[in-house]
Design goal:
With about 375 residues, the protein is an alpha+beta fold. The protein has 6 helices and 20 strands. The protein has a 9-stranded mixed sheet with strand order 8-10-6-5-20-18-13-16-15, with no helix packed on it. A 4-stranded antiparallel sheet has the order 11-12-17-14, with no helix packed on it. The protein has a 3-stranded antiparallel sheet with strand order 9-7-19.
Length: about 375
């Protein structure tokens, strides 16, 4: 008898599970499940249990098109939106009045073309192409400020609204930094391997063109520093935290939030902050300092004391600080787009590239 393999992924509060028989590559199944979740998020603006229950008919319709006798079939979003109309208020009203389901009886032309990710006959009054280079910095910094581990997970997110069938090429100033990469199916892999140029016919709308991972310690610049002293003795705790910019090339560090999970014996906190506001949740025992934007001439500091439950010491407690931040117009890895060219069409589109660096799993030990 063929072996049965069950796989599952979790996205926020929703879990997708599959069951397969026979030999099959695990990553193939995982990728399909992620594609299903991405499709639900595009259709319903959410992947929660409530959104799936409210649109259960559309969910079944999508799964029927995405799987044919257990094999992935139509997984490109532009094909699915032509086959099955998204459940907007207007589409729901039309379906109620006419009694027709929002399923097209005509097969999309792009499904049988060699460019299945782009629908045919696209026309726009304003032709635009926007590219966001978003980098998440994961880091662990020890109590002395030394980097234990650091890596960058980056995506080039695109929002393309171009008429016809444009052929784009994107080059980088320093492509040698991009070693561990993965691409959208539209990218011509051979040209990247030979010239380090992204050549592609883009899908219509939003998509992730490329993902990359940089783990070399000498290539990961830590954009903020955190100096922290947290100690517990004589029935109380002392907190002294300072935050500041570091290796940001003059860019402003924004949306800075410091989160400190305190020991369970901490009952309260009294802090003084030079910038921003703090809060302490006595139930979850989390001390949160919302700094916001770091001004160049004003270093944020937070100092104060914590009260402990009677008879508690917490001498061996060393809370780990979690840091969140966002820096606009900065790719901390040093990645930079050199130029973006378009072929096969004779109009001149508006093009824009934006860089964003933000904290991923950024921890500072005390």
């Amino acid at each position: 008898a063929a072996a049965t393999v069950r796989s599952a992924i979790r996205r926020l509060e929703a879990v997708v599970s599959t069951q397969s028989t026979g030999e099959i590559q695990p990553l193939f199944v995982v990728e399909f499940m992620h594609r299903v979740m991405d499709t639900f998020a595009e259709y319903f603006d959410d992947c929660s249990e409530g959104a799936i229950k409210d649109n259960i008919i559309v969910v079944y319709q999508l799964l029927e098109e995405m799987l044919d006798n257990g094999f992935p079939l139509a997984t490109e979003l532009n094909i699915l939106t032509e086959l099955i109309k998204p459940p907007t208020i207007i589409n729901k009203a039309v379906s109620m009045v006419t009694g027709k389901e929002g399923v097209s009886s005509v097969l999309p032309g792009s499904q049988l073309s060699n460019v299945p990710w782009r629908r045919q006959g696209v026309k726009y009054a304003n032709n635009e192409a926007y590219f966001d280079c978003v980098e998440d910095v994961d880091a662990i910094v020890d109590a002395h400020g030394a980097i234990v581990s650091a890596e960058i997970h980056g995506n080039i997110n695109c929002n393309v609204h171009l008429s016809g069938m444009p052929d784009l090429s994107m080059s980088f100033i320093n492509p040698r930094l991009l070693d561990d990469v993965s691409f959208h199916p539209c990218v011509r892999l051979k040209r990247w391997e030979s010239e380090k140029i992204l050549s592609f016919i883009p899908p219509d709308g939003s998509f992730v063109l490329m993902s990359y991972h940089i783990s070399a310690q000498n290539q990961v610049a830590i954009p903020v520093y955190v100096r922290a002293m947290i100690s517990f003795r004589d029935g109380q705790g002392k907190v002294d935290i300072t935050v500041g910019p570091k290796q940001t090339l003059g860019k402003t560090v924004d949306n800075v939030v410091i989160t400190v999970p305190m020991p369970k014996d901490v009952t309260g906190a009294s802090m003084t902050t030079s910038v921003g506001t703090y809060s302490f949740d006595p139930v979850s025992k989390v001390l949160k300092w919302d700094i916001g934007k770091i001004q160049p001439l004003k270093v944020p500091t937070m100092r104060g004391t914590c009260t402990l439950a009677a008879g508690s010491e917490c001498k061996d407690a060393h809370p780990t600080i979690h840091v969140d931040f966002k820096i606009m117009q900065l790719a901390v890895s040093g990645i930079k787009v050199n130029r973006l060219d378009m072929f096969q069409e004779n109009y001149k589109p508006f093009k824009g590239v934006k860089y964003i660096t933000k904290a991923g799993n950024f921890q500072v030990r005390t």
